Amino acid sequence: MQNHNSKLKTELKYRCYCFSIQIIKFLGNLPEKKVYWVISDQLLRSATSIGANVVEAKSASSKRDFIKFYEIALKSANETKYWLGLLRDSTETDKNKTNQLLKETEEISNMLGSSLLTLKNKNKF
């Protein structure tokens, strides 16, 4: 079981890192219009915060501290979904790419949520 949990943590860190790179590339392809500036900045901050908090959790000084970093990562993932949805529905962005990013955000959110339930000993039944 320990090995399985370790593998999931490694996969989560890797997926968050790759997701951040995908977001950076996605934002680099947005038109140079003022309407995109604020949304792009917010999306970049929230999306990269997910992985940064997962990595930071590794250095946590306690289980409570570890949980807090995962909670922040989950909140950042939820914020990321908001900004991606806003871009998808209100601008002329590539809707297929935006939907792919939303799907990955949802999967990362589910991984974080599942980890938090396990960490807090609140299993779904």
Share of helical residues: over 70%
Helix count from the secondary structure assignment: 4
Instruction: Give Rg in angstroms.
Output: 15 Å
Q: What structural category arises from helix and sheet content?
A: mainly alpha
Sheet having the most strands: none
CATH topology: de novo design (two linked rop proteins)
What is the CATH level 1 assignment? Mainly Alpha
- What is the second-level CATH architecture? Up-down Bundle
Order of helices and strands: HHHH
Total beta-strand segments = 0
Residue ranges: pLDDT <50 for 5 or more in a row? none
β-sheet strand percentage:
under 5%
**Separation, N- and C-terminal Cα atoms:** 20 Å
* Whole-number mean pLDDT: 90
Quick take:
By secondary structure, the protein is an all-alpha fold. It has helices spanning 2-28, 34-57, 63-90, 95-119.
Secondary-structure blueprint:
Blueprint: H1 2-28, H2 34-57, H3 63-90, H4 95-119
What labels would you give this structure?
125 residues, mainly alpha, de novo design (two linked rop proteins), 83% helix, 0% strand
Question: Can you describe this structure?
Answer:
With 125 residues, the chain is an all-alpha fold. The chain has one domain: de novo design (two linked rop proteins) (Up-down Bundle). The chain is 83% helix and 0% strand. The chain contains four helices and no strands. Helix 1 runs antiparallel to helix 2. The longest helix is centred in the middle third of the chain and has 28 residues. The radius of gyration is 15 Å and the shape is elongated. The model has no long low-confidence stretch (mean pLDDT 90).
